[in-house]
Write a structure and sequence with these properties.
Distance between the termini: 49 Å
Number of strands: 0
Structural class: mainly alpha
Shape: flat
Length: about 80
C-alpha cells in the first residue's frame, strides 16, 4: 500500500539533509548567506513535517511545527539583516 504522505516525508528529509550540508559549508567557509540558507531549509523541514501532521488531523503537533518554523525564520532574518 502506498503511503499518502511519502511526498511530504521525502521533502522533509531532503530539506533536513540540505540544511546539514549548508550548515557544514557555513561552518567551514564562514559565509553568512549559507547560515541563512541552512536556517531557512531547516524551517522548511518543520513546515513539511507540520503538513503531515495537518493531514493526519494532529492539530496540536501541526501548530507546534509551525511555531518552530516561524521562530527559526524570524531568527534567521534578524541575524541576516543584523550581521550583513
Amino acid at each position: 500500500m502506498k503511503d499518502p504522505y511519502k511526498k511530504f516525508a521525502s521533502l522533509q528529509l531532503f530539506m533536513t539533509v540540505l540544511s546539514v550540508v549548508f550548515g557544514g559549508f557555513a561552518i567551514a567557509k564562514g559565509y553568512y548567506v549559507l547560515v541563512f540558507l541552512a536556517l531557512i531549509t531547516l524551517s522548511l523541514s518543520f513546515v513539511f513535517e507540520g503538513i503531515i501532521d495537518w493531514k493526519k488531523q494532529r492539530i496540536p503537533l501541526f501548530l507546534l511545527q509551525m511555531i518552530r518554523a516561524l521562530i527559526i525564520v524570524t531568527f534567521a532574518f534578524y541575524l541576516y539583516f543584523r550581521i550583513a
